[in-house]
Amino acid sequence: MIHFDRAECRAPDGTVLVKPTTLTWDASHVAVIGANGSGKSTLVRMINGLAPLSSGTVTVGGHSVKTHGAQVRSQVGFLFTDPSAQLIMPTVIEDVELSLRKLVKNREERRERAREHLDRFGLTGKEDVPVHSLSGGQQQLLALASISATEPSIIIADEPTTLLDRRWRRVIGDMLASLPTQLIEVTHDLEAATRADQCVVVDQAEVVFSGEPAHAVAHYVELMDTSAKDALS
Question: Which is the CATH superfamily of the domain at 2-232?
Fold first, then answer.
């Protein structure tokens, strides 16, 4: 469970990136939607300290991000929009092995575990392929395999399908939904958002709706339609 208690984030110059927020995310799949620059990515980055808190608290499984940061980060995996930002080893299997280095000390066992993870994520036969020769969808699968290898209880996916075509959006979306972890997904895909268990709408650095996905999406669409009309008037 993730709990925000008057949690606020400001830029170094004092600009408010996320206004004081109090809410609880205990659903298996939480979607976060909002316009570009609304603060939705900053909001989810507050969960593992990638966006430091200016005030208030965020707790993950009862542990404060401020006082138990390392423990929280060990529970939370983060999937970026662009997988190349987090794939750092030369070959596919080496990248998963890197994630396993703390959990599996024996080198041979670590390689076998890495192969199992690659099989699970549809990357069988790609073990020795250079990471950056993979397609965008395959790279995102590899990034997800590497994150999953650390056995997190929560995965935050920040617009994980934005750079992908329709086929790969479906593949990655289905794979994320199948994982036995809590999923926090920032997305512009409103169809995907309606498949979540809970949906949060962020607008101008503020959470303006949290609840049933269909109602959240309707609220967001109305908000954007009104904003568009105001911009043209």
Answer: P-loop containing nucleotide triphosphate hydrolases (3.40.50.300)
